[in-house]
Amino acid sequence: MPDFSEAIVHAQSHEVPWPRDPSADPAHWGVHHADAPPFNVLRGPVHARGGVSGVVFLRGEEAASWGEPARADLTFSVAKTYLALLAGVAHARGLLDPAETIASRLPGIGFDDAHNRAITWAHMLEQTSEWQGSCFGMPDEVEHHRRVSHDPKPPQGRKGERRDLQAPGRYWEYNDVRINQLSLALLHLFRRPLPEVFREAVLAPLGGGEGFRWVGYDDAWVEIDGQRMPSVPGGSHWGGGVSISARDQARIGQLLLDDGVHAGQALLPPGWVRRMQQPCAIAPFYGWLAWLNRDGAMFADATRESWFMVGAGGHYVWMDPVHQAVVVVRWLDPARAPGFVTRVARALRG
Fold first, then answer.
1. In this predicted structure, what is the pLDDT of residue 153?
2. What are φ and ψ of residue 126, in 5° steps?
3. Which residues does the annotated region (Disordered) include (predicted)?
């Protein structure tokens, strides 16, 4: 059995420098502070967090854990990948074809104008949609020129500074407003709250779900078939989002490592997980709401087949098909993530 103790000590020694209670020091918690007023505020609830924690699965079995792996904590943009899983569930149910335009199936929810009606589900999943508009009062330009740690392109402008849009599929940009618009579209497809669908279709079959919550903004509600439902965000940029345990994150990672099949049951359609790992043509470091390591630029010591779910606040779910490993680490200082990956990779290689 590999010895992960060096990696665990490294992680526990380098906690993200955010307060554990967001109410104690709100000016140094979260990522919304980087937005221009009036968008630099929380719009949904947040809660106190635990310390550094994590889990390692090897060949489907838990090989190591540390911290509080059963604690359900906010996971920020790891939730984006969960939207890609829900899109797979919708595809299996005949509710979407990735190549079709969203407007052709869901008119009247923000995809009808001359620019947006060319946007496909695939564009939204690979973050090349260039969707324009306002989602629950948040305009897309709030996230123009957004930079995140694993985006290799040089800065193009100041965050929130409006830029000229390109045709859908022609420009890659990490943009939480557009992700929230994707979530709204999926809600209209399922016609049920996405947290319910995710719990029933993914978490429950995996034996998970304890403490799981997926919460929307205070004012992000829609009425469908006479029922008032929350539209949940694909992260916690402005609050809300997914709270989940490290073990459940590892279970989801194992599902992806197993090509969407658990205990003989296909929870995702054939080929969906492989398609999630296909590099975006104009952003080969990214697949469908997941980060790729094809050239080693993300983490030099991880295998080139490795891929990742990543969230602000130091959240990483690492799937390594070569070693049949799933590695989850939470609340790790992102500046220290390469050192953690190096130590885990060394242990996996033996």
1. 82
2. -100, 5
3. 143-164
Contact between residue 332 and residue 340 where contact means Cβ atoms under 8 Å apart = yes
Please state the rounded mean pLDDT for residues 157-175: 95
Would you place residue 17 in the very low, low, confident or very high pLDDT band (cuts 50, 70, 90)? very high
pLDDT band at 149 (very low <50, low <70, confident <90, very high): confident
Q: Residue 265: enclosing H or E segment and its boundaries?
A: strand 265-266
Tell me the C-alpha distance between 345 and 350, whole Å.
Answer: 9
Full set of structural domains in the chain with CATH? 5-78+194-349 (3.40.710.10), 92-188 (no CATH)
Q: Is 312's pLDDT higher than 80? A: yes
**H/E run at residue 325:** strand 325-330
Tokens 């080139």, located at residue: 304
CB-CB contact of 330 with 73 (8 Å): yes
Q: What is the dihedral of CA 334, 335, 337, 340, to 10 degrees?
A: -140
Mind listing the pLDDT tens digit for each residue in 74-128?
Answer: 999 999 999 999 999 999 999 999 999 999 999 999 999 999 999 999 999 999 9
3-class DSSP state of 194? helix
Tokens found for residue 276? 């999630």
Q: Which residues contact 238 (CB under 8 A, 6 or more apart)?
A: 32, 39, 41, 42, 43, 44, 138, 176, 217
Q: Is pLDDT at 148 greater than 80 in this prediction?
A: yes
Taking the C-alpha atoms of residue 319 and residue 78, their distance in angstroms, rounded to an integer, is: 13
Q: Got the DSSP string for 103-119?
A: HHHSTTSS--STTGGG-
* CB-based contact 194:187 (threshold 8 Å): yes
Q: Which of 105-119, 129-143, 147-161 has the lowest mean pLDDT?
A: 147-161
Token digits for 14?
């380098």
How far the first Cα of the chain sits from its last, in Å, is 9
Q: Is 221 helix (H, G, I), strand (E, B) or coil?
A: strand
> Coil, helix or strand for 12?
helix
